[in-house]
Design brief:
four-stranded parallel β-sheet, 30% helix, single chain, 6 helices, alpha/beta
């Protein structure tokens, strides 16, 4: 039997609607946006500074771990269909791309295809105050009591470049799309 595969597409809602997917993650409201920091606005998830900002956001590591668990649950089902995950934020350059990369790493034992639909598209001009809806005090901190601390630490290390993997380095990507194969 052929191994089922996982397709992860990262995107920005500001460029086009979410693609069809089994699981859709909308990061716009609940997680702070690196776009509001002038020094990060023009960077992308290809830059370590963006990955550090996103993976340092409380709740992100838990979301990646929980999503990987949901994907594995779908894969345990009776169908051979691929499991598709769409990860979106406002522009698709910071949060969505970083979370997609971390999710691909968390699922590296599977056949994973990672596509960044909008990573290299133009920055969307929008007011900074509206872009950071999840400001200080609104986000619960990651807690070892309610997370798998080892999994969270591995995801964070991988996303920050402390672990090797072709999904993380721009050399492994072919422009705005790329693939990570486990």
């Amino acid at each position: 039997m052929q191994q089922q595969h996982v397709e992860i597409t990262t995107f920005g809602y500001g460029h086009a609607p979410a693609p069809e997917a089994t699981i859709v993650l909308d990061l716009r409201v609940h997680f702070r946006d690196p776009h509001v920091r002038p020094e990060l606005r023009w960077l992308t998830a290809e830059d370590i500074e963006v990955r550090e900002a996103v993976m340092g956001t409380p709740g992100i590591s838990r979301l990646v771990t929980a999503t990987a668990a949901a994907v594995r649950a779908y894969l345990a089902g009776p169908t051979d269909a691929p499991v598709t995950v769409a990860v979106g934020c406002a522009g698709g350059r910071h949060r969505a791309a970083t979370v997609g990369m971390a999710l691909a790493y968390a699922l590296r034992d599977r056949d994973v295809v990672l596509v960044h639909r909008d990573l290299h598209r133009d920055v969307i001009d929008r007011p900074a105050q509206a872009a950071d809806a999840a400001g200080p005090g609104r986000e619960p901190a990651d807690s070892p009591a309610d997370t798998n601390a080892d999994a969270v630490a591995a995801v964070r290390r991988a996303a920050l470049g402390d672990d090797s993997g072709p999904w993380l380095t721009p050399r492994g990507w072919t422009g705005p799309t790329g693939s990570a194969r486990g």
